[in-house]
Amino acid sequence: MINMGFNMRYLDLKRRIRDVRMWAIQGIAEAGSGHPGASFSAAEIMGTLYFRTMKHDPSNPTWEDRDYFINSKAHSAPGFYSTLAVAGYFPPEEIRTLRKLGSRLQGHPVRYSEHQKHHSVPGVEYSGGSEGIGLSVGIGIALAKKLDREKAKMNKVYVLIGDGESNEGQIWEASMAAGKFKLDNLVAILDRNRIQQDGFTEDIMPLDPTKDKWAAFNWQVFEVDGHKVEQIVDALYKAARVHDKPVMIVANTIKGNGIRHMANNPQWHGKAPPKRQTEVLLEELESECLIAPSIIAGERENYEDKIRKVEREGVDMIHLDVMDGRFVPNTTFFADTIKKLRPSTSLPFDAHLMIEKPLEQIQEYIDARCDIITVHAEACTENEFKEIQERLINAGISPGIAINPGTHMPKWLHRSLHDLDVIIVMSVNPGFAGQKFMPEVLPKMMAVNKELMEHGFRGYIEADGGIDATTLHQAYDAGARIFVAGAAVYGGGDIHGSVIQLRHKAAVALEKRLLNHSTRLNVRSDWMKARKHILIPYANELGIEEELHAIK
Ligand code: DX5
Ligand code: ZN
Known about the structure:
single chain; alpha/beta; five-stranded parallel sheet; globular; binds D-xylitol-5-phosphate; binds zinc ion
């Protein structure tokens, strides 16, 4: 959590963006048409804006002091509508009327108008369609606000543009104007997914060097991984502090990201999946896995190096095991060390507090700017946990609770599930890295998963202890989606290979699950056909070589 502006409650933000993709795919499959590719490549960008950055009010879409969002790549409408719905502008169920006669959710969004409530969408500022125009509209709004001195600092204007759309000459005319008028209240974000309607952008109309182009037109340019919300939040935080220049954030994204056979595949620019596969697709979207290396494992070398090494491997977050020598028979580090490590990475910090009386010390870990803070159920009462949870949420931090192998999920936790983002089910007795995974916790993990789902839990189960290439799939099948890995990553000297292997095992577990689901729905061969190029590398491990070979 590098930015101090908006604390992102990381896991809650991830969950909302997951919901956006799930609603979008339901709408597209139900309509039998729509653009999954762009809806998914821009999901983190739009989600971070609406759920964590923009000043807006779903109950008052024309609020005068609101920030503006112009979606110039309007074919991403299913993703955009789903973002507005999850943000609260209208009930998400309405997404299922996408492109239907009489629905206000048509293929391209219609600007909201109080006079045309039934035909326009609350939250939509610009009727998109023919591309290349949205940036000019954004510049018009930003300039108007600038001319009205009062408003100059009040309203920010965000514009989402595409890289295919950047073939349009108007984009470059507009970019010159924004540079000339020093529109520092304007932030454009380029969804750089490198695919357009009929192929790869660099084959059709090369855009690179993209950053240099915008910088040459007097824009302040930042570049991010467009699927890492922490980097987008960070770039938006920096953008808010730029003066006398408009800002361009080049977000490197993957078209269709989230569904593996759609990812980076031009076929899925404007094509709908068969409706009968919807449930399997929803299961995939619900199953994103996160890898969190535990830095206390392996050599006692400096933690910053350890963090940098795994950051290079694209892990999702850093697991920080705080041990006080009382709650567990080992001592590691405390809030002061975390504070020192904070500036070394934008990766979210997943702090696992194995300490007595966590309520007394919680403020130090809030101030150390962790993104997720998990305390042990064995170390606090219901009321203490409630207070911890409230303080974490107010500070924009994801609250979590951990249970040791011998502990069952406390019944009182049902009353806190709504605002709980993660539950760690320990698969070793806490205290040390490098211990052996305890398979006897699996039935409990499954029972916890079932109980949580029955109570509407939308957060994550985290498996912690002895996770490696031989045990990850067991925890995955039991419901875990966040995997802590200490010795498996830092214990063997080949960090690169270890992270790849963990991701591979997670992918095999996912594909097996989706295959089973497709069989239950009687769409197995259909699914395997759509998924063939993804399944080939796992065919042996999944025991489907012959079957896959027969699929034409
Ligand atoms: C144990 C810690 C774990 C541990 C993980 O008490 O909570 O996070 O460091 O290390 P491995 O993966 O080696 O068990
Ligand atoms: Zn841990």
